[in-house]
Amino acid sequence: MPKIVIHAGGQRYEGEVKPETNLVVRAGIKQFPWPHLKYRCGMGRCGTCASRILAGAEHLPEPNWKEQKLLGERLEQGLRLCCQLWIRDDLELTQDLVQDSPAAAACS
Length: 108
Ligand code: FES
Fold this sequence. Notes:
Elements: E1 3-8, E2 11-16, H1 23-28, E3 50-55, H2 65-71, E4 79-81, E5 91-94, H3 102-107
The structure holds FE2/S2 (inorganic) cluster.
FE2/S2 (inorganic) cluster binds at residues 24, 39-42, 44-49, 81, 83.
């Protein structure tokens, strides 16, 4: 079972999830990492779920076109969109210090 560590609001939260899990889908049904994960559209449009991957990025698939479009060069800084990721292995991430994208601001 993949172990997920999320840093939010200066705190560290840890939980296990089933393989092939999407963290935004889980949060949507109020399962860990809810309520610590910020998200909105769940469709790769708003950027609210943008997270800096602290560990485990090597296990993630290549960014899809939605991540490339929304994150651009921020992909190289370790950001990914959680709503576009299906988790197979351990992952550690944070949304602290991740600025909302212009798309996220437009959704507000
Ligand atoms: S929740 Fe909107 S881009 Fe992921």
